[in-house]
Amino acid sequence: MIITRHHSSFRCKQATNSSQPPHSHIIFSSSLTSSHFLILYSLLHNSTFQALMDTSTLLVSLCFLSHFLIPNKIYVAALHTYQHNDDAVANVEEQQSSQNAAVDRSELCNTDMSTFLPPPYNNISNMACSPIWNNFLLRYHKREGNLVTFIVSAEYTSGWVGMGFSRNGMMTGSSAMVGWFTKQGHAQIKQYYLQGPRSSQVIADAGEIDLTKVPPAVVLHGPMIYLAFQARFEKPLTRQPILLAFGTEYPRNHRLSIHDDKTTILFDFHAGSASQHINPGVMMKNHGILGIFAWTLLLPVGAIIARYLRHKDPLWYYLHAGFQFVGFLFALATVVLGQQLYSKINADLPAHRSIGILVLTLSVLQILAFFLRPKRDAKIRKYWNWYHSWFGRIALFFGALNVLLGIQAGGGAIAWKICYGFLISTVILMVIILEILSRVRKSETTPFSSFQMNSIPIP
C-alpha cells in the first residue's frame, strides 16, 4: 500500500514491489665481527641482491603512491560518513543541546500513526521505538517466525530516505529499502541492492531483504516521512549493522543520487537501542594495509632471500630472520585488528576469518620452530627443514589468498586491487627469474665427472 500526497489530503494507491531476493630461524647477535661487515659489504655490492632490494623499495613506493594518488573509495566514503564522529569531544553547551534534541526525538515516538498509516501498519500495538541517528527514528515489532515489521521515519523536504541491512557494516553487499516522493507528489518505495559505491551499482528492484506479501508503504505526514515494510529473517535479529542515509536530490528513473549524509549503527534489537555508531571504514583500511605488507611483501621477500641467497652465508640468515620477524609482527597486528573489527561490526565472513586464524597459527608454529631447531648434523634435521619450508609455503599461499578475499568482501576500490595485483605479479615474476638464474648457476658450477683411462700394457 502506497500513500501519496495530493494537495492537503492523502490518497491510497495499491503498489506492487517487484524486488525479489537473489537468490624462520631467528638469531639475535649481540656483536658483529669484521668478517660479517666484509660479507655485508660484498653482498650489498652484489648485483642480484641490489636488484632484489631495489625491487622491494620500488614495490613499497608504488603502493604508497597508488594509495595516495588513486582515489580510495572505502576511505573517502568512511571519512565522509563519519567525519562528525571525529569531533566526539564536545563542550558543555553542545552536550546540553544534544540532550535536548534527544528528548525532542523521543517525544516523536508518541505520535499516533493509526490516523495516517495504511493497514496493517496502523494497528500494530506495542511497537518498540528508538531514536537512532539525527532525526531518524526506528519502530519495530517482532513476531513468531522471525517476522519483523519496521517503520523508519525522518524529517523530509525533498530527495530520498533509506534504511539498509549490512553483514559487515559496509555499504557494498547490503540491501536497503528506499522511499521518496516525486516532484508531482507521487510516492515511491523500492528495495535496492548495493553492489558497490557508485550510483550505477545501486540496483533497483533487487536485494536480499525477504519481504512478505504485505506491500511496503511510504507516507508523508507533516514534516516527517515514514517508510513501513515487513521482512522475514533466517534467524532472530540480535545486534545488526544498520545503514541510514538520505539525499536531497530526487531519483531519476529510479536511480538514486549520491547521498548527502549516511551512517552505520549497530542496533541491538534485544535492548531496543543503537549501542554505538560504528566506523568500520578506517579500521578496514588499516587491516588491509597491514595484511598486504605482511603477506604480499615482507614475508614473501624473506622466503625469497632464504631460497636464493644461501651462497651469502651467514648474511642471508640474518636477512631472512629479520624480514620474517617483521612480517610476523605485521601479520599478528592484522589478525588482532581483524578480530577487533569482527567484534565491532559482527561481520559475517567465516571463510576470511577462518583462513586468518589458520595463517596466524602456521606463523606461530614457524616462530616456535626456531626454538626446536636441531643441529645441522642431527638425523632429524632434514625432516625439520621439510617442515619449516612447506609450512612456510602453505602460510604464504593462504595469506595471499586471504588478502584477496578481504579486498573482495570489503568492496575494495581500484587502488587496492592494483596494489595487490602488482605486488603478487612482481613477486611471482621475481621468483621465476631467480629460479632460472639459480639453475643456470648450478649447471655452470657443476663439474664434469672425471674418469681415469685404464692404461694399456705395451707388449
Layout of secondary structure:
Layout lengths: L1 E5 L2 E5 L20 H11 L2 H23 L3 H10 L9 H17 L19 E6 L2 E8 L3 E9 L4 E6 L8 E8 L5 E8 L7 E3 L5 E2 L5 E5 L2 E9 L6 E9 L13 E8 L4 E5 L2 H29 L6 H31 L4 H22 L9 H29 L4 H32 L14
Antiparallel strand pairs: 1-2, 3-4, 4-5, 5-12, 6-7, 6-13, 7-8, 8-9, 10-12, 11-12, 13-14, 14-15
Helix-strand string: EEHHHHEEEEEEEEEEEEEHHHHH
Helical proportion?
A: 40-55%
Count of helix runs? 9
What coarse outline follows from CA principal-axis ratios?
elongated
Q: Strand order, main sheet: write it out.
A: 9-8-7-6-13-14-15
Compute the number of strand runs.
15
Features of this protein?
459 residues, 7-stranded antiparallel beta sheet, 6-stranded antiparallel beta sheet, 21% strand, elongated, disordered N terminus
How would you sum up this structure in a few lines?
The chain contains nine helices and 15 strands.
Structure report:
This protein has 459 residues and is an alpha+beta fold. Helices cover 44% and strands 21% of the residues. It has nine helices and 15 strands. It has helices at residues 34-44, 47-69, 73-82, 92-108, 280-308, 315-345, 350-371, 381-409, 414-445; strands at 2-6, 9-13, 128-133, 136-143, 147-155, 160-165, 174-181, 187-194, 202-204, 210-211, 217-221, 224-232, 239-247, 261-268, 273-277. The strands form three sheets. It has a seven-stranded antiparallel β-sheet with strand order 9-8-7-6-13-14-15. Strands 3, 4, 5, 10, 11 and 12 form a six-stranded antiparallel β-sheet that branches. Strands 1-2 form a two-stranded antiparallel sheet. Strand 8 and strand 9 form a beta hairpin. Mean pLDDT is 77; it is low at 1-41 and 51-103.
